[in-house]
Amino acid sequence: MRIHAIRTGSVRVKRSFLFPRQGLRRQLSLFLPDQWSEPLPILCWAIEHEDRLLLVDTGESSKVRNIPFARFDVSLEQELPGALRAAGLSVGDVSEVILTHHHGDHVDGLPHVRAPVWLHSRELAYARSPFSAVMRRVLRQPLPSGFSPQAFDLDGAPFGAFQSSRSFTADGSIVAVPTPGHTPGHISVVCIDDEGRHIMLAGDATDTLEQLQARRADAIGPDPAVHVATLQRIGRHCAEHPTVYLPSHDPESEERLAGMVTVMPRAGLEPAPPD
Fold first, then answer.
1. If 59 and its partner were Cys, which of 4, 109, 169, 252 is the partner (CB 3.0–4.6 Å)?
2. Every domain of the chain and the residues it spans
């Protein structure tokens, strides 16, 4: 198995996005003046396994519009086909796509792909809900043309600290697990390499490793308590299994993948009590 970090441009976000306030100000602050971060990567992931090339997310489009709390910088050359070419891969060889969730910077590259696309059934229902439709209209962030993923359920056995799972390979080496919080149906994909390490392609489960260590809910998710419970579960998994933790916007994710740097319990991820 070989995993590639595929960078499709960058995004700057408000400090209130990365370090949200509590209570009513948690989401309101996103629309108020604030400091902007340094550019953060917009990453998706390519997995070469046996004779397959799987994508986890598809990155952003050069046509993306800025929103009140995010400023995008994506050139045409940085879209999925060019980003894959830079890694020595071809978009035409993609065998299937697994989406962590339905937000634009994770799905806007879909028009480039001619392969089956999978999205957790709970996330697909959330994407089709009236609330999501209204927010996409307000923020001018439509779903890409032809957005019609196949739904999958997390109806498999428990996996590590996670209560359910869905394997995408016969050998059980690529597994989707539930990580709700950022969105209700968010999933992460865990790849098990030949050394037994768990490479967690975490989407927006957190923005950074620091957020996971702090157990800090983000400014976007509808229920902070659900998000914190997920972070505790991820922390427990990282403490019980050697895990390379890779959020999609963490500036250090590419370096951690290159060095296969695992998260250690001493970094603040000691096991949490069972639910």
1. 109
2. 2-267
Q: How many residues does the chain have?
A: 275
Q: For 249-273, what is each residue's pLDDT tens digit? A: 999 999 999 999 999 654 445 444 4
Instruction: Return the CATH fold of 2-267.
Output: Metallo-beta-lactamase; Chain A (3.60.15)
Q: Smallest Cα–Cα separation from 45: which of 227, 253, 263?
A: 253
CA distance 55 to 47: 6
Local structure of residue 194 (DSSP, 8 states):
T
| Percentage of the chain lying above the pLDDT 70 cut | 96
In a 10 Å sphere around its CB, with 0-12 CB exposed, 13-18 middle and 19+ buried, how is residue 82 labelled? Answer: middle
Q: Which of 188, 60, 72 is nearest to 120 (CA)?
A: 188
Separation CA 160–CA 259 (nearest Å): 23
Q: pLDDT, tens digit, for every residue of 201-220? A: 999 999 999 999 999 999 99
Give the whole-angstrom CA distance, residue 72 versus residue 85.
Answer: 21
Burial 1-31 (b: 16+ CB within 10 A, else e): eebbbbbbbbbbbbebbbbbeeeeebbebbe
Q: Which residues contact 231 (CB under 8 A, 6 or more apart)?
A: 181, 205, 206, 211, 212, 215, 216, 217
- The whole-angstrom separation of Cα 107 and Cα 120 is 13
Could you report the per-residue pLDDT of 87-143, keeping only the tens digit for each?
Answer: 999 999 999 999 999 999 999 999 999 999 999 999 999 999 999 999 999 888 999
